[in-house]
Amino acid sequence: MAAADSGYFLRAVERRGGSELRIKQCSAGDVGCVVWDAALVLAKYLETSGFYRDGLHAFTARNVVELGAGTGVVGLMASVLGAHVTVTDLEELQDLLNINISENKRLVTGSIQAKVLKWGETVKDLPHDPDYILMADCIYYEQSLEPLLRTMMELAGNKTCIICCYEERTMGNNPKIENRFFELLQTDFEIDEIPLDRQDEEYKSEDIHILHIKRKRH
Ligand SMILES: C[S@@+](CC[C@H](N)C(=O)[O-])C[C@H]1O[C@@H](n2cnc3c(N)ncnc32)[C@H](O)[C@@H]1O
After folding, report:
1. What is the four-CA torsion angle of 147, 70, 199, 56, rounded to 10 degrees?
2. Pocket residue to mutate for ligand 1, from 11, 21, 26, 31, most atoms within 8 A of Cβ
3. Is CATH 3.40.50.1110 what the domain over 8-215 is classified as, yes or no?
């Protein structure tokens, strides 16, 4: 889609019901300023029938925290589906997150706010033991792996389901980074991979994985 105003270009994400999320991306900025494919796959997965029981979405009135939210598309989808969402990222992404929250306010049926959360730093003012933690394309550089895992440990309680979507990359250091992350993750968490036939029919790919992750009961 063409840029609406200078510095931003728009990504429209169609919803099953026909409405669309309108996500602003920055033409200049760091990796968080654009919508990554893993975010689209995760956002569309949240709309699939497996999340509904008796017409009610599993996110209705649930607490959800998104890590490394970037543009906020995944958290926005969760809030449109009825969740009370806190999208988190570094300080420099807060303006973009707030712009996208305000652009899509009319569709939100739960609630949504943006907060600063740097992985590995003490978690403040966030729901402890949220029902869901969402993460899209957050496994991509070595120095962040241990801090990210510390944040996941600090936030997640026994009932929390972490839904993690990542793109498997074969270039450079990426395979090593992914292997290391899963090696560390398995100490404290159980991992369940969602097969492609339970994902959105259109927004899925062999190299993009969706995982449900829960704390092990030691
Ligand atoms: C590849 S982008 C993915 C953005 C978004 N989830 C998506 O898939 O479109 C990774 C995100 O993680 C955030 N991030 C990276 N390091 C972080 C850290 N140490 N603490 C918090 N967020 C971080 C970045 O700012 C960025 O928004």
Report:
1. 100
2. 31
3. no
29-81 pLDDT, tens per residue? 889 999 999 999 999 999 999 999 999 999 999 999 999 999 999 999 999 99
What's the average model confidence in pLDDT over 118-122? 96
Query: Looking at residue 107, what is its pLDDT?
Result: 98
Ligand 1 atom closest to residue 135's alpha carbon, by position in its atom list: 6
Kind and range of the H or E run holding 95: helix 94-103
Mode of pairing for the β-strands spanning 84-89 and 111-116: parallel
Q: Are 77 and 21 in contact (CB under 8 A)?
A: yes
pLDDT digits (tens, 9 = 90+) for 169-191: 999 999 999 999 999 999 999 99
Q: Put residue 157 in one of left, alpha, beta given phi > 0 → left and psi -120 to 50 → alpha.
A: beta
Atom 20, ligand 1: which residue's CA is nearest? 118
Instruction: Read off the pLDDT band of 3 (50, 70, 90).
Output: very low
Structure tokens at 197: 């036939």
**Predicted model pTM:** 0.96
What atom of ligand 1 comes closest to residue 33's alpha carbon?
27
Nearest CA to ligand 1 atom 26: 32
Distance CA 119, CA 117 (A): 6
Report domain extents, the chain. Answer: 8-215
Q: Is residue 188 classed exposed, middle or buried when 0-12, 13-18 and 19+ CB atoms within 10 A define those classes? A: middle
- Ligand 1 atom with least separation from CA of 37: 8
